[in-house]
Amino acid sequence: MSAPVPSLHRRAADDLQFIRRTIERSATFTAVPGWGGAAMGALAVAAAVAGARQPTADRWLVVWLATAVLAAGVGLATMARKARLAGVTLGGPAAYRFAAALGAPLAAGAALTYALWALGAYSAMPAVWLLLYGAGVLTGGAFSVPAVRVMGALFMLAGFAAVATPPAWGHLWLGAGFGGLQIGFGVYIARHHGG
Fold first, then answer.
1. Is 89 helix (H, G, I), strand (E, B) or coil?
2. Which of 85, 102, 118, 145 is deepest in the core (most CB within 10 A)?
3. pLDDT tens digit sequence for 89-126
4. 111 φ/ψ angles, rounded to the nearest 5 degrees
5. What's the distance, Cα to Cα, between the start and end of the chain in Å?
6. Would you say 195 and 34 are in contact if contact means Cβ atoms under 8 Å apart?
């Protein structure tokens, strides 16, 4: 006795569901590194502690810029590893959209950091960094999992808080944002969206 043949309607519904899942996967950038994000956060906590102990604003800036370069390397390396393990390409349309949405605010942040340094306006840097990184993560998150968008919005809130509080609190907001938020969301992404 042969197995019953599924109805044409049921088969069409199954095919449409498969197509929808395939399109969603191709439109969502899923290589955001959870454990890599947590490692980036740990670096930021160390930078917040080390930066607060620097005798000059220039040395404080060097600590944070060096940490940013190191964290970017960790983020890119762990992103590439996660993509490779998941069989996802970093050259697809979703990855390009994510990179463009994140990259534009980061480039603006680099230019503004130079301008603020030239003016000696170091106390504005924490708010600028948190706001622009948050804007980049929020817009890049439009092409990723929902947790990324939430993280971006919370970074922006930390940036607004850095604007509204005394400048001496800047290193605390940097530690809370780049450290605490990055660690918390990194662990969440690792547990719920793979490594």
1. coil
2. 102
3. 777 777 788 788 889 999 999 999 999 999 999 999 99
4. -65, -45
5. 46
6. yes
